[in-house]
Amino acid sequence: MHDGDVENTPLLGNKQPKSRRQVRRYFTENIDVHYAPLPLLVCCFLTGLIDAGSYNAWSVFMGMQTGNTIFLALSSANLPAGSDSFKWARSGVSILSLMVGSLIAGRVYNAVGPTRRLTLVASFLLQAFCIVVAAILVHTDAVPETDPTDKIVLVAIPFLAAQSGAQVATAKSLGFSELPTTVLTSVYNDLASDTKLLAWDNPKRDRRLGSVVMMLLGGISGAWLARGTGTFTTVLWLGAAIKALLSFSWMLFPAETEG
Fold first, then answer.
1. Residue 225: how many CB atoms within 10 A of its CB?
2. What SS3 class is residue 31?
3. Is 53 exposed, middle or buried, given 0-12, 13-18 or 19+ CB atoms closer than 10 A?
4. How would you write 90-156 as a 3-class SS string?
5. pTM above 0.85?
């Protein structure tokens, strides 16, 4: 070997390019969705957690839009009696924001593939970021958490509702329609009408039951956190942390096997 060849030989040889190729392949590969219901069930917990906190603070839901639709309808007649006249705006903004979040996430999943590892990691990081933005707004008192009639509340609602919409789009795109993550009415109905409800092997039933339990636990946690701390901020920071952990959890999933 000539001296010039030695000088031109990189210290790490071809390891660095190979390492980069491995990282790129790792993040662009499709995951095995067999265990995907696990993070989706945690998303059900998050819905209960954040919705309990948001309803207690602002009398509006971020994920469960059936309730907001009824609030919107009641507001047309200034009902319930004694309720604030601004509830229609909070409900309407939440509904529209969830739809926008679902629209964007759904289009992205359709374009690049919903099971690609990088897609899921990035999606959940963005959802966590949305919760962080809302948490900062409330924590710094830029948005009040004790006065739902203040119009500035409408600044924080879109971030929370949009991430809920992206969460729903994730469950649908991964093929787990029995885990919508934000609603339970259809889940209760599907459970009651399931002809194999008492069968030993019934994964969809198990996931539906799990979603009910997780959302209930999330709601209870949100309620007691709000009661114990007296703030919505704690609920939001906890929600952001859990969502961020879920983002990194997708990195632990095995790759999809061919055939």
1. 21
2. strand
3. buried
4. HHHHHHHHHHHHHHHHHHHHHHHCCCEHHHHHHHHHHHHHHHHHHHHHHHCCCCCCCCCCCCCHHHH
5. yes
What are the backbone dihedrals phi and psi of residue 148, each rounded to the nearest 5 degrees, phi first?
A: -65, -15
Tokens of 3: 């001296």
pLDDT of residue 230: 85
A 10 A CB-CB count for 174 gives 19
Write the burial class of residue 138 (CB in 10 Å: 0-12 exposed, 13-18 middle, 19+ buried): buried
For the chain, which residues score pLDDT lower than 50?
11-12
Residue with tokens 């500035």: 152
Q: What is the pLDDT, as a whole number, of residue 49?
A: 97
- What is the CA angle 21-26-29, rounded to 5? 115
Q: Locate the DSSP E strands across the chain.
A: none
Dump pLDDT digits (tens) for 154-185. 999 999 999 999 999 999 999 999 999 999 99
Round the CA-based radius of gyration of the chain to a whole number and report it: 22
pLDDT (0 to 100) of residue 146: 82
Which backbone phi and psi does 177 adopt, to 5 degrees? Answer: -65, -20
- The rounded distance, in Å, linking the Cα atoms of 121 and 23 is 14
Cβ-proximal residues to 132 (8 Å cutoff; 6+ apart), any chain? 240
**Whole-number pLDDT of residue 85:** 79
Three-state DSSP class for residue 231: coil
Query: Cis (ω within 30 of 0) for the bond into 39?
Result: no
Provide the pLDDT for residue 22.
84
